[in-house]
Amino acid sequence: MKIAVVILNWNGKKLLEEFLPSVIAFSAEANIYVADNASTDDSVAFVKENFPQIKIIQNKDNFGFAKGYNEALQFVEEAIYALVNSDIEVTENWLLPVLETFKNEPGTAIIQPKILDFKNKEYFEYAGAAGGFIDKYGFPFCRGRIFDTIEKDDGQYDDACEIFWASGACFFIRKEIFRELKGFDADFFAHQEEIDLCWRAFNEGYIAKYEPKSVVYHVGGATLKMGSPRKTYLNFRNSLWMLTKNLPASSLPGTIFTRLCLDGIAAIKLLSEGKPKHLWAVFNAHMAFYFHFFSNYKKRKSNQLAGYYKIKSIVQKYYLGNGKVFENLF
Fold it and tell me: For position 222, what pLDDT does the model report?
């Protein structure tokens, strides 16, 4: 079974210089690609000169994460795609357990490895940790990370299991499934497009899994910083778009209304923390939701499945209950 490791790059020479060596050293089972989003630095020249074995795909513009991968993967024919951020350090034999799972489990379409923090390697990393889930209102959380509470890796999540979504930081998917689902939603640009893709896969009956024997380390925030109002805007907007596209029809109106109200509370909290630009980002996200509601609604399929969430409200569990750690949620 052939696998392609595809690293999306935009002006990331320093990251490629630091992290490509580990990918090359520990990915003998793969062909490695750098998909470049029209970088204006010399990262492409750097790869050509120093890593001639790597295949380069050059996009015509900076298409962001979603369309950037969609464009590049048209030219990648390996059976398995490993979509890897440029700020990921991989470990020895990281591909073998993933390939084994794909080989033995035909119904598994998507896999996420264990993602630990490059800067603090005993802890999980924010973007994905040990596999993702969402609550009824579309708020994402992970085994090992709920909102800003991040757990130490003490082996508590060393069991392979089904998950709802896999992190885009290191995302494995069968080529045939990626193409069947028409890839990421390019309108998202960046953030939560992987959750949307996993939700669409779920609605088609496919399985996403977490594989703890595959371990990577993620820097996180290397492209768009955690405190960026742009990041706030994309997360709030894309979450509402995702709900519009994927919720079961019977729960769509009530769930969207509740989510809008919860977003309003979050915006007030951001203002109380002295972040007026973030409040404005939430407002603009809601305006984009209203403006694009019908275009997103038209993307809905006939088979919108229930059972997408394990708990009703992660917000309630986290702030009013004992929900700081995943194992305490149930």
Answer: 54
User: Which of left, alpha, beta for 326 (phi over 0: left; psi -120 to 50: alpha)?
Assistant: alpha
DSSP assignment string, 168-218: TTEEEEEHHHHHHTTSS-GGG-SSSHHHHHHHHHHHTT-EEEEEEEEEEEE
- Give the other-Cβ count within 10 Å of 326's Cβ: 21
Please report, for the chain, how many H helices and E strands are present, in that order: 11, 14
Nearest to 135, CA basis, from 7, 283, 291, 262: 262
Token output for 30: 């793969």
Break the chain into its structural domains and give their ranges. 3-218, 229-301
- 209-263 pLDDT, tens digit per residue, is 999 999 999 998 655 556 799 999 999 999 999 999 999 999 999 999 999 999 9
Query: In the chain, which stretches have pLDDT less than 50?
Result: none
Please tell me the distance from the alpha carbon of residue 275 to that of residue 109, in angstroms, as a whole number.
40
What is the model's pLDDT at position 322? 87
Query: Interhelix angle for 252-272 vs 229-246, to 10°?
Result: 170
For 132-167, write each residue's pLDDT tens digit: 999 999 999 999 999 999 999 999 999 999 999 999
Other beta carbons within 10 angstroms of residue 192's beta carbon come to 25
Strand partners, 116: 124, 217
**Does residue 214 sit in helix, strand or coil?**
strand
CATH T-level assignment (fold) for domain 3-218: Spore Coat Polysaccharide Biosynthesis Protein SpsA; Chain A (3.90.550)
